[in-house]
């Protein structure tokens, strides 16, 4: 009981911290903007990787999303919807990147995308990440986006804000995306 | 044994691909964009001001020319009128 109330308190504290940061960042406080970027960059990178499925452009797309975040902050109507709004920006940026890269591939089919090899973090299991990445590749970008939102711990209501569909549609989309992912995901230990 | 959740591993891989100076780059570009936008508005304002001043100058010069032309026409007309009245008065 005490633990649950402590967790709720911690969540509210984080939210209040975020709200304060958003308000300060909107006013042009550069240190608040920097802290906001640090707070969200990894989650946005994870989202971007899940949707675009390649490591080559993670840094560039994450940079674009965060830049659009700073530019759009003055237009954000409700600060409590900040995270849903940010993930909507990320989703739209990823989908437009996929659209434009399809055209790029069409006009220059021989162009190869290169990805940097980066040393894996210590607690990273490449086999698990590969298996999930392989399964995600079989899904559509919209399925990947909704799964990425769910993996980030977004509620159905927040997903509704980010995707712009009804709650019922979100539940159906998520259920179907999970079913498709289950069909394609093979745990490396079972392979 | 329960299966390990693969999502955190995917997210850690993604995070490993971010370069360390991401925040600096975003802030620098944001600053540049803001300055660029301000300069673009300034140039637009200056261009509008120049165009308005040019239009006003054209109207004023045009009016001056018209006034001079009108005066010249009036002088010519009155000269003709004087001559005409002289001819009419001839016996």
Molecular structure report:
The complex is a heterodimer of chains A (191) and B (91). Chain A has helices at residues 2-26, 30-52, 58-72, 82-107, 126-137, 141-151, 156-163, 167-184. Chain A has 191 residues and is an all-alpha fold. The N and C termini of chain A lie far apart (41 Å). With 91 residues, chain B is mainly alpha-helical. Chain B contains 2 helices and no strands. The termini of chain B are far apart. The interface between A and B is medium-sized, with 41 and 23 residues.
Question: How is this structure best summarized?
Answer:
The complex is a heterodimer of chains A (191) and B (91). With 191 residues, chain A is mainly α. Helix content of chain A is 72%, strand content 0%.
Counting DSSP H or I runs of 4 or more residues, the number of helices of chain A is 8
**Any idea what the radius of gyration of chain B is?**
39 Å
Proportion of β residues of chain A? under 5%
Structural class of chain B: mainly alpha
The outline of chain B comes out as rod-shaped
The number of distinct β-strands of chain B equals 0
Rounded mean pLDDT of chain B is 89
Low-confidence stretches of chain B: none
Order of helices and strands of chain B: HH
The total domain count of chain A is 2
The rough form of chain A would be described as globular
N-to-C CA distance of chain A = 41 Å
**Poorly predicted regions of chain A:** 9-13
Share of helical residues of chain A: over 70%
Helix content of chain B: over 70%
Question: What is the CATH topology classification name of the largest domain in chain A?
Answer: Rna Polymerase Sigma Factor, Chain: A
Task: Give a topology summary.
The complex is a heterodimer of chains A (191) and B (91).
Chain A: H1 2-26, H2 30-52, H3 58-72, H4 82-107, H5 126-137, H6 141-151, H7 156-163, H8 167-184
Chain B: H1 7-16, H2 22-89
Q: Features of this protein?
A:
heterodimer, A: Rna Polymerase Sigma Factor, Chain: A, Arc Repressor Mutant, subunit A, 2 domains, B: 91 residues, 2 helices, 0% strand
């Amino acid at each position: 009981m005490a633990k649950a109330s402590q967790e709720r308190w911690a969540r509210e504290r984080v939210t209040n911290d975020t709200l304060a940061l958003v308000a300060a960042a909107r006013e042009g406080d550069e240190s608040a903007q920097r802290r906001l970027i640090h707070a969200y960059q990894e989650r946005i990178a994870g989202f971007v990787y899940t949707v675009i499925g390649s490591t080559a452009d993670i840094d560039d797309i994450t940079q674009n999303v965060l830049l659009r975040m700073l530019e759009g902050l003055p237009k954000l109507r409700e600060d409590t919807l900040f995270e849903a709004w940010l993930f909507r920006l990320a989703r739209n940026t990823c989908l437009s990147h996929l659209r434009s890269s399809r055209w790029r591939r069409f006009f220059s089919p021989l162009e190869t995308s290169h990805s940097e090899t980066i040393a894996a973090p210590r607690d990273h299991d490449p086999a698990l990440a590969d298996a999930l990445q392989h399964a995600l590749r079989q899904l559509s970008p919209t399925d990947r986006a909704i799964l990425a939102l769910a993996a980030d711990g977004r509620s159905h209501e927040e997903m509704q804000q980010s995707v712009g569909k009804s709650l019922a549609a979100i539940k159906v989309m998520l259920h179907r995306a999970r079913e498709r992912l289950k069909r394609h995901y093979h745990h490396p230990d079972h392979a | 044994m329960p299966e390990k959740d693969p999502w955190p591993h995917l997210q850690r891989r993604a995070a490993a691909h971010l370069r360390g100076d991401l925040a600096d780059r975003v802030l620098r570009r944001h600053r540049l964009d803001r300055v660029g936008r301000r300069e673009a508005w300034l140039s637009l304002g200056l261009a509008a001001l120049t165009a308005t001043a040019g239009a006003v100058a054209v109207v004023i010069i045009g009016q001056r020319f018209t006034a001079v032309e009108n005066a010249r026409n009036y002088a010519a007309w009155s000269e003709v009128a004087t001559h005409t009245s002289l001819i009419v008065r001839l016996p």
